[in-house]
């Protein structure tokens, strides 16, 4: 025979059930929020690379907006698959697609285009793990082939690569993180009309911090300084820009995260203009990245 529990007893059972469910949910969220520092800092890279045997799929959107006049938008969508065969070494294959919306920009043809941008291969080698040493340190090499000029959208043939040294620190245990990047990016581009090769180089340094504001949410900011050169040496400086802006990282579930950044050029200089370099860079740059481990 079923005997109905008194109201007081039922309320106590319900309260304990709610507490158990809440504890389990909080515990699961706390475990899910253990962040990989690679994605914490926006455009600035963290030194973490994952765990041996891990696979990762990543979708990254980078938008660049605004030139000296007219309307300018260039959006690159990169799809990546990453594999970690060893504890300290990771490789990835990347395919990039691009959209260009250009109208009335001095020195650039009006263009509205969606196209394949190119392919790249990335290798990351972790020299020092921040969990075992005073900081994390990783070298990132990314050779690439492109079929579209990244600024104008013109059909070209380009060969280049980026070398980045990424370091990060856990400034306050499990709460405040910092990162520092130094990068070297070189490019050789063949333009069909008129037929010519153009060589250019960019170097840069960036710093960022990110702090945990909730169990699965980090907010922060970064500063990036970039210099552009004509040719592959450091003798002919052609422009420079200083960017700054906020970043965010949210752990959606275990092994799944969304992160992003927005940067604005706050000062710069090029041969053709004054307070900003809008020849080699843009007024604003934004990044949105979704990654899942499996």
What does this structure look like?
The protein has 294 residues and is mostly beta strands. The chain has one domain: Beta Barrel (Porin). Helix content is 9%, strand content 62%. It is built from 1 helix and 12 strands, in the order H-E-E-E-E-E-E-E-E-E-E-E-E. It has one helix at residues 7-32, and strands spanning 55-65, 71-86, 89-103, 111-128, 136-148, 155-172, 176-191, 196-214, 217-230, 237-253, 256-270, 284-293. The chain has a 12-stranded antiparallel β-barrel. Strand 9 and strand 10 (237-253) form a beta hairpin. The longest helix is centred in the N-terminal third of the chain and has 26 residues, at 7-32. The protein starts with 6 loop residues before the first helix and ends with a strand. The model is unreliable at 1-33 (pLDDT under 50).
List key phrases describing it.
single chain; 294 residues; mainly beta; Porin; 12-stranded antiparallel beta barrel; 1 helix; 12 strands; 9% helix
Q: Structural class of the secondary structure composition?
A: mainly beta
Report the strand count.
Answer: 12
Largest sheet: 12 strands, antiparallel, barrel
Helix content: under 10%
User: Which strand order spans the largest sheet, edge to edge or round the barrel?
Assistant: 1-2-3-4-5-6-7-8-9-10-11-12
Please mark out the parts with pLDDT under 50 across 5 or more consecutive residues, or reply none.
1-33
- The name of the CATH topology is Porin
């Amino acid at each position: 025979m079923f005997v109905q529990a008194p109201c007081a007893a039922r309320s106590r059972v319900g309260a304990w059930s709610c507490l158990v469910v809440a504890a389990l949910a909080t515990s699961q969220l706390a475990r899910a929020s253990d962040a990989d520092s690679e994605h914490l800092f926006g455009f600035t890279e963290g030194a973490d690379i994952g765990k041996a045997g891990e696979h990762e799929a990543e979708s990254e959107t980078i938008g660049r907006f605004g030139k000296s006049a007219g309307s300018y938008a260039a959006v690159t969508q990169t799809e990546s698959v990453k594999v970690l065969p060893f504890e300290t070494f990771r490789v990835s294959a990347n395919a990039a697609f691009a959209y260009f919306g250009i109208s009335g920009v001095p020195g650039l043809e009006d263009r509205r285009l969606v196209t394949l941008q190119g392919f790249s291969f990335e290798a990351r080698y972790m020299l020092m793990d921040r969990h075992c040493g005073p900081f994390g340190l990783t070298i990132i090499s990314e050779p690439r082939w492109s079929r579209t000029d990244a600024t104008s959208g013109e059909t070209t043939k380009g060969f280049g690569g980026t070398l980045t040294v990424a370091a990060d620190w856990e400034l306050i245990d499990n709460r405040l993180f910092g990162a520092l990047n130094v990068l070297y990016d070189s490019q050789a581009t063949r333009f069909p009309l008129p037929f010519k090769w153009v060589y250019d180089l960019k170097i840069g340094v960036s710093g960022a911090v990110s702090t945990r504001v909730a169990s699965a949410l980090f907010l922060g900011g970064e500063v990036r300084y970039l210099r552009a050169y004509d040719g592959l040496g450091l003798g002919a400086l052609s422009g420079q820009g200083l960017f700054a802006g906020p970043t965010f990282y949210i752990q959606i579930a275990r092994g799944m995260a969304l992160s992003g950044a927005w940067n604005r050029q706050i000062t710069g200089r090029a041969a053709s203009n004054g307070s900003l370099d809008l020849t080699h860079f843009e007024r604003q740059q934004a990044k949105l990245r979704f990654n899942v481990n499996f």
